[in-house]
Amino acid sequence: MLVALVALTAIDLGTKEWALDSLSTPRLPGQAAPVCEPDDEGRIAYQRQPTPSRPLIDGVLDLTYAENCGAAFSLLRTAPGWLRLVVFGTTTIGAAFVLISMFLRAVGGPLFAAAVPLIVSGAIGNNLSDRPRHGFVVDFLQVSPELFDYPIFNVADIWITIGVVFLLIDGMRRPREVTVEPPAALPVAPDAKPQ
Prior knowledge:
By secondary structure, this protein is an alpha+beta fold. It is 46% helix and 13% strand. The protein contains 4 helices and 5 strands, in the order H-E-E-E-E-H-H-E-H.
């Protein structure tokens, strides 16, 4: 599991560094805005300047730089930075502890075992790496808007989604242990004679 966890985390962080270098440029001095703080109109300025989107799979998937200050679907995006760091960091550490301890106790089947490194590496990449370093999560994968309007995401989001699907399938596949107690024997009267 450790090898998978390290490899998956490295892939996620490597692709995000690539996105920072290839899909955005630094802002000029004096153009920087506070990290993830909304202005008077509620807009949050990016810390880096996005370059134009490029197709990864023409008509299906584009490479588009984005900075996500919140969780999935921008949940808590306007909360103070310290609060986001505490909430997301605590949640990540707690979930990782629970999942790894269940893995070590051999809870679940093979899909559960595969889900643990996927979910933990995705959470580490987004909440224990990106948020402390940048103040936001680097996203760069976008379903082509002509096909479907879906939020921009990253490799960690893919890992987490696959891991959750594995958890759900594993939970549905495992037979529930049902213990049925045999009925109590009927008492036999002491003076009853067998026939």
